[in-house]
């Protein structure tokens, strides 16, 4: 879908990645309760409660990756300067999001006991992100550097 020449799929993908990055930063500041609520696991939550820097470093690392992925989406639509390896990076980003989202379905068959609400929610979110990146990349293919 294009709105006056704008690749809305990559714009949405970039905004979603940016929001996910922001959420990860907020989780660091909110602490153990938020680590638990957003599915980071008891080990990460306990480490956060004990003052360990490991959960913050891991979570901020994820936030950084998501932020960069958002920049790549925005680069794909020309909202920021062209980033290196733009086509390949967008393909890889879309693939990672899609694989992360699709892993839900074999998990439901193989180990349904491990699939909780967070697993469903995060997998479906990743699937939406991946579809946005894939459709946007496909749509912009000829214009990408």
What is the CA-CA span between the terminal residues? 21 Å
Radius of gyration: 17 Å
Strand residues, percent: under 5%
Low-confidence stretches: none
Shape verdict: globular
How many structural domains?
1
**Main structural class:** mainly alpha
Percent of residues in helices comes to over 70%
The profile of the biggest β sheet is: 2 strands, antiparallel
Number of helices: 7
Counting DSSP E segments of at least 2 residues, the number of strands comes to 2
Characterise this structure.
- With 145 residues, this protein is an all-alpha fold.
- The chain has one domain (2-143).
- The protein contains seven helices and two strands.
- Strands 1-2 form a two-stranded antiparallel sheet.
- Helix 4 crosses helix 5 (86-102) and helix 5 (86-102) packs antiparallel against helix 7.
- The relative contact order is 0.17.
- The model has no long low-confidence stretch (mean pLDDT 94).
Task: Describe how the helices and strands are arranged.
Elements lengths: L1 E2 L2 E2 H23 L1 H6 L4 H8 L4 H23 L9 H17 L1 H7 L6 H24 L5
Antiparallel strand pairs: 1-2
In short:
By secondary structure, the chain is mainly alpha-helical. It has helices spanning 8-30, 32-37, 42-49, 54-76, 86-102, 104-110, 117-140; strands at 2-3, 6-7. Helix 1 packs antiparallel against helix 7 (117-140), helix 4 (54-76) packs across helix 5 and helix 5 (86-102) runs antiparallel to helix 7.
């Amino acid at each position: 879908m294009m709105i006056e020449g704008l690749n809305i799929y990559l714009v949405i993908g970039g905004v979603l990645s940016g929001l996910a990055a922001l959420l990860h930063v907020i989780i660091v500041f909110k602490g153990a309760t938020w680590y638990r609520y957003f599915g980071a696991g008891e080990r990460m939550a306990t480490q956060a409660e004990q003052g360990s820097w490991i959960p913050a470093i891991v979570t901020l690392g994820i936030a950084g990756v998501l932020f960069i992925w958002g920049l790549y989406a925005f680069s794909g639509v020309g909202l920021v300067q062209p980033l290196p390896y733009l086509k390949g990076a967008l393909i890889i980003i879309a693939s990672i999001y899609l694989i992360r989202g699709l892993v839900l379905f074999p998990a439901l068959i193989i180990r349904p006991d491990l699939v909780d609400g967070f697993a469903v929610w995060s997998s479906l979110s990743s699937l939406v992100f991946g579809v946005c990146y894939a459709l946007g990349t496909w749509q912009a293919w000829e214009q990408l550097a």
